[in-house]
Amino acid sequence: MIINLLSLFSLLFLSWVSASEVLTLGTYKIPNYVKTAKEGIFIDLVQRVAKRADVKVKIEIYPPKRTVHNFFHGKLDGYFPALDVLNEKGVNKSVPFYYKKDFLFSLGKVPKKSEGNQRVCLTRGYPYNLEIIKDQFEIIQSSSDESCFKILEKKRAEAFLCELHTGIRAAENLGIDYFKVKPKVVSSLPVYFAFQANQRGLKFSRLFTAEIRKMRKSGELSKIFSSSTEKIKNYVNFGYDPTLKN
C-alpha cells in the first residue's frame, strides 16, 4: 500500500514538473514573420518545432534590443530570430533555420564593387555583415526600408541593401514598381534559436536542432516560407529560398 502511494506520488510529482516547465522565448515584431505572439511565419515555425519536440512554449514580444537584453539578463529561456551580431556573449544555438540574405536594390544601374565609393543605404537597427559591406560601399543609414527608397529617389544613394521580402514590401508600400535587384547575395547571416548557456539551454538547443534537421530533410521547412518566396517570384527571375545557405 505504502509502495503504491509512493509510486502514485512520484508520478503526480513528475507530471506536475513536466506540466509546469514552460519554455519562454522572446522575439520582436517583423512584418509577415512575427505579427503577434500567435501569428507570423516565424511563429508558425516555432509552434511546429515545439509540437514535434513535445515542448510547451510561451512567446513574449518586445522591441529588438529589449528582447536581447531580457535574454542575457535571464528573463527568457531563449529568443529568435537570433544572429551572432546580436549576441554579447556565448549562447547555446540551434542549427540555422533561416539565412538573412541581403541584396542590392536600385532604381537604375545597380552598383558594382569595382566602381568604388558607391553609396548604399542601410536600415538603421537591422543586423548586417558590416565587415563585408563596409569594404565595398560608402554606407548611409536611414530609419526604415521605405526611407531608404526615398533616398534613392532623391539620388542621395545608388542602392539600398536589404532582404528580398522586406525590400519588395517597402517598394509596394510606396507604390514603386520600377526597381531592380542584383541577383547576387552581398551578405548572408545564419539565423537560429538562441538558448541560455547552461545545461537546460543545451537540452533545448539539441531538441530544436533535431527537429529543424528533420523538417529540412522532409521539405517542411522550405514550405513554411513558401508564401513569402512565391510573392518574390513576381519581381525577380532568380531562385530564392531563405532556408538554404546558398
Descriptive account of the structure:
It is built from 9 helices and 10 strands. The protein is an alpha/beta fold and 246 residues long. It has 2 domains: 20-98 and 191-232, D-Maltodextrin-Binding Protein, domain 2, CATH 3.40.190; 100-187, D-Maltodextrin-Binding Protein, domain 2. Helix 4 (130-133) links the parallel strand 6 (119-123) and strand 7. Helix 2 packs across helix 7. The radius of gyration is 21 Å and the shape is globular.
Based on the model shown, name its key terms.
single chain, 246 residues, alpha/beta, D-Maltodextrin-Binding Protein, domain 2, 2 domains, globular
The separation of the N and C termini measures 63 Å
Instruction: Please identify, by name, the CATH architecture of the largest domain.
Output: 3-Layer(aba) Sandwich
Supply the CATH superfamily name of the largest domain.
Answer: Periplasmic binding protein-like II
Structure class: alpha/beta
Beta-strand residue fraction:
15-25%
CATH topology of the largest domain: D-Maltodextrin-Binding Protein, domain 2
Q: Characterize the biggest β-sheet.
A: 10 strands, mixed
CATH class of the largest domain: Alpha Beta
Instruction: Tell me the helix content.
Output: 25-40%
Q: Uncertain runs with pLDDT below 50, 5 residues or more? A: 5-20
